Amino acid sequence: MCVCAIDCALCNSGDEAIIHLCEVCRSNHPRNLPVFLKVCAALSVLASGLFQRVAGDSIHISQASVSRCLTQFIDAMLHHIGHFIKFPETVGEERAIKAGFYRVAGFPNVLGAIDCTHVSIRAPSIEENVYRDRQRRHSINVQVVCDHNTRILSVCARFLGSSHDAYILRNSSLYRKMDMLANNDVCFIGDRGYPLLTWLMTLFANPITASEVRYNHAHAVTRSVIERTFGILKSRFRCLDDSGGCMLVTPGIACRVTTVCCMLHNMAVNRRLPMPVIPQNPKEDDLAVAKGLPMGRAARIRQQIVDQHFRQVWYDTVRLVA
């Protein structure tokens, strides 16, 4: 068991999870402290959100040592990001995700739910104003795609708090990848902060028909997993949650820490570790709504989904079977 006194599911899950992290980090760590102790020190800071001095006290090492442990742990983990955060690699894995989403409310071909969440940081010394979000906090805005089990498939944690969700998407590698694929067999679902695209389904702003209302309901219920993912992530790693204050690091370090927390979250999901208690915080709303009329082909694809999956007789039958 981890000697760490902090309540962290990864620390308290037994030797296996900690040993795995030690193996991941071993080749990248200097030998001044045992890797096991460094991993526990880093997890203490990430899971508790406590200052490094307090985390150091819990495992009897100095604040300076905790700081070095955290830096070395983050660096080592990021060398393995592709092992922890990735899209499905086989047809079978893709089908399993689409089936999982479909079971929620009958929404077809969903590969992931997408949204952004803010992580509060200390006011930067340079250009601090561009990091202010809509709530006037200094933050980074983090784009995440998750599957039906809250597993994170993609994370982009390099944008300023003032950046809108749609802007982040259009300037991310995810957008370039999906735009090149042009695959009508998969889609993401996002809220009104995103534009309607051939591979990104959004809500009808003003649903007119009963089928459009049913589509909107199924969309909202299915998309709610991303909000649950954010809740679990921030409850599991309190350094990301602003209830106890902001992260006292530079924006660059905050981006790296956030990415590693997403990696560790996936490790916890894969190992079926206990879910943390999620506080009922108000949803973070990006009040910016993507402007412009839906593009012709994207609008036709959305209408095809409505016609094929949310007509009254068919939809009622699917709900009864489910």
From TrEMBL:
UniProt entry keywords in alphabetical sequence: Cytoplasm, Hydrolase, Metal-binding, Nuclease, Nucleus
Domain DDE Tnp4: 114-266
CC cofactor: a divalent metal cation
Database matches in Pfam families: DDE_Tnp_4
Subcellular location: Cytoplasm; Nucleus
Tagged with keyword Metal-binding: yes
Coiled-coil annotated spans: none
RNA-binding among keywords: no
Gene Ontology molecular function terms on file: hydrolase activity; metal ion binding; nuclease activity
Entry's Gene Ontology cellular component terms: cytoplasm; nucleus
Homology family: Belongs to the HARBI1 family.
Role played: Transposase-derived protein that may have nuclease activity. Does not have transposase activity.
Entry-linked PANTHER family: NUCLEASE HARBI1-RELATED, PTHR22930
Protein name, entry field: Putative nuclease HARBI1
Native source species: Coilia grayii
